[in-house]
Amino acid sequence: MAKGSQLSQLKAALNQAGLSRPPQNSKKRKRTAPDEKDKEKQAAKLKEIHQKLNPFDVKVTKLKHDVGGRKIAGVTGRPAQSKQAGIEQRKKTLLKELEGKNHAGGVLDRRFGENDPTMTPEERMLERFTREQQRVSKGEIFNLEDEDELTHYGQSLSKLDDFDNVGLGLDDEDDEDRGQLDRDTVRRSHFGGFGDDAEDEDEEPARKKSKAEVMDEVIAKSKIYKMQRQAQQEEDETLRRELDQELDSLRSLLYAPDPSGTPGEHSAQIAATPTKLSAQDQEYDQIVRELAFDKRAKPKDRTKTEEEIAAEEKESLEKAERRRIRRMNGEPEESDEEGSGKKNLTKGHGGDDLDDDFHEEGEWNGLGMGLGDDTKADEEEDADEREREESSEDEADSASIDSENSEDPEAEEGDSEALVGMTHRTRSKTYRTKELPFTFPCPSNHDEFLEIIDGIDDADVPTVVQRMRTLHHPSLAEDNKLKLQGLTSVLIDHVLYITSPSTPRFSLLASLIPHLYALTKSYPIQSAEHFVSKLTLMHKNLKRGLSRGATQLDAKTWPGLPELSLLRVIGEIWPTSDKNHHVVSVARMLMGAYIGLGRVRSIQDLASGAFLCSLFLQYESLSKRIVPETVNFLANSVLHLAPHTFADKSSLPGFFPCQDFGSKQCASLAIDFSKMKKTTLGKPNLPQLLSDTDTSEQGKLNLLGLSLELLDRFADMYKSLDGFIELYDPILRLLDGVRSQSFPEGLLERLTSIKDTIRRLLKFSRQARRPLMLQAHKPIPIPTYVPKFEQSSSNYLRNRDPDHERNEAAKLRRQYKQEKKGAIRELRKDARFLASEQQNQQKEKDRAYNQRMKRVIGSLESERAEEKAMEREKTKEKKRSGRK
């Protein structure tokens, strides 16, 4: 770079780069447009020259240890450019936020009546139209070119023949003020804005109009507009008369003919309209009223809430119940009373009427005409028989209860307690002879529920429960929630009641489970308490039976049909795959206690245990938790029922417990195939097996087939367990020891299939099993002793900590510190930028204020100067007049 001033350096740099202008010759040269590439090259050279001319724009960081050949980022920087880039970026972001800081966004609906729920849409539209017309007319109120009436002091100028009493102060009575205008009149008339005069002032020299000229102009214009309005009114009246005469044609356009109707009807309707001119006004008013009653579009039905649906269902049920009672009593229905009186009249007797359908009021039984006497007598006889039977049964039950209480006063220690009261268990089966009511009270206990459903078929009991839930929905009353919670316990008691021997009703149980599930889902805590209370009572009964003696025949150590039904319902309602559950965990522990602690004494115990094993199979189908009691019980069942080659306990394979093997009570459980006439394998009848009514060989055969099937299904469920080999290898050897020569064909096929399946699963388990090995570790390296450097000794060794975790923590601390410094630096730059922008805005406001004040002060000074000059002129005039 050449020495000297910056101007000389710039010229030298331009000449050296070839960017200076060539010398102008006298001869004219042909100019050629520069190429785009040449322009880019020139711009790059100019930029390089500009950078070299300003050495302070480049910041160079001096390296402490400079090594040649290294390229280190951040050594050179351009602070001015980076600062300018930061300012431009903040103008795009922070400045926009500052400008819109106090601005409220969003769209506000300011239409009239939009937020007023008391107004109908028609009223809103009418009021909006009125206000729009008022707004339009308000803007044109002083426009003399429009057709609206010009008003003065709230009165139309067209209605003022003279200008008396309009506030001009020209009355003849005021002699003192005659010929002068008051201040208000001057303000309104002279400065009220006569637009035409203001326009003329620009062309002609300003001249003050006299009062007479102003009033003449006003009167002339008012008369002109009055004539124009009268002409317009005459035209409107003429047009209105023409429309009245063409009313029939307008009606034909409004009321188009119906495509589905005949053209004759439309022509007759048009012909029926009056044509007299005197009746047109009345007809027009009548048509307008008819248009007001036209059918308008209605919105679709909205989705109703749960409370509204429950209220409607309750109202419909109550209405149906009232209609049913009126129909049962022979009274007319509500619709009949509201209608014509012809429906209430009794039917007249015909000539061949035998008078066999006569019945008195109040004897309607819902079965039809002509059946009242016979059916009533039959009902009376059936009712008498039922009363006699129930009284005898109640006496027998009370006698048995008294005898039990007298024999054992301490029943809690020895006898088992019933899960539900069975006082009405042996009630006679009644058939419904009347229509099912629509409203029912919500029972608080099971006895009330039995009274409600007394005489109702089992198929209608779910309907009764559904109507109870509908009538006592929680949203209809405050105490309905407690009533439905009580209904849950009532349904649990009824499940135990209907599954009690000797006539269990499983179809009714299946229809009640959905209602019990819905109530449990609504009130899980209360339902769980009811279920747990029943399970606790079952556990107490089991402990009482075990304390009496597990091998005693009168000890209740196995669940009956009601208990099994309750456990089955629990598996249907509650989730059984949870690890810990308030209801299922208790039920699982109780079932395990039944199977593990109970002793087999009869075929009923085997049937109950087999059903518990099937329940465990259902419970653990998802979680696949192992229950060894089930496999042990099924193995013992096979030993009790099937013939085998094992003589004593020592010859049995494996180590599963077999306490009842070879006992006297279990000796009669073995199947005697010689007594069987028909050897076909079927499904066991659980109610018959548990009620001690089916102890035949066929029942034992079916129970043996069920045990084998359950062993197969448990093997399929436990095949992925690590201990499957130890669990099922003894089972396979036990099945191999069963004598199957006398088995029927179906049982033999099942046994063979099960043994093949277990062998195959055991083979796969042995192939997948690997011996235990020590945990594989990486080879232990030779210990290296790294010296511990002191962190404060040298800056170079500060980041060389041998502890990796401590080194990473220090690295994170340094990064955090750097980021914090950078954030503080950026926040300070933002604050300086915002402060400078606010200062600039304040300066702009001050400058505008000073200019405005200067203009005002200048205008005041000029006016004061003119005033002083006028005063001086007046003073001179006075002096002159005084000298004269």
From TrEMBL:
Primary localization class, coarse: nucleus
A cellular component term, taken from the record's GO annotations: small-subunit processome
Domain of life: Eukaryota
The entry's keywords: Nucleus, Ribosome biogenesis, rRNA processing
Subcellular localization: Nucleus, Nucleolus
Biased composition (Basic and acidic residues): 32-51, 97-114, 121-132, 178-187, 205-214, 286-321, 861-876
Family matches, as Pfam families: Nop14
Residue runs in coiled coils: none
Record flagged with keyword Acyltransferase: no
GO biological process: maturation of SSU-rRNA
InterPro entries recorded: Nop14
Extent of Polar residues compositional bias: 270-281
Acidic residues: bias regions: 404-416
Positions of the UniProt region annotated as Disordered: 1-51, 97-132, 161-214, 250-426, 834-884
Protein family according to the UniProt entry: Belongs to the NOP14 family.
Function of the molecule: Involved in nucleolar processing of pre-18S ribosomal RNA. Has a role in the nuclear export of 40S pre-ribosomal subunit to the cytoplasm.
Protein name stated in the entry: Nop14-like protein
